[in-house]
TrEMBL record:
Protein name: Uncharacterized protein
Superkingdom of origin: Bacteria
Species classification: Bacteria, Pseudomonadati, Bacteroidota, Flavobacteriia, Flavobacteriales
Species this protein is from: Flavobacterium reichenbachii
Length: 69
């Protein structure tokens, strides 16, 4: 399963931090950002993906994260 999220993350250093935080809780997830995209895409792939937790983690770090439908 793959989920795509719109974020307001601007810097690569921030993406690395966010990925590390998510991977601590969900080590099997494949996670990447596309900062070239106008929506600053966060893409997460995994089995039994828990979108609400991803959104909550990113929001708690001070960033906007919205699931794209």
């Amino acid at each position: 399963m793959v989920e795509v999220f719109k974020t307001n993350v601007q810097r690569i250093i921030d993406t690395n931090y966010i990925i590390a935080v998510i991977k601590r809780q969900f080590p099997a997830y494949k996670i990447n950002f596309d900062l070239e995209d106008c929506d600053k895409i966060l893409r997460v792939e995994g089995i039994d993906l828990q979108s609400n937790y991803i959104i909550e983690y990113v929001n708690c770090l001070g960033y906007i994260c919205v699931k794209l439908e």
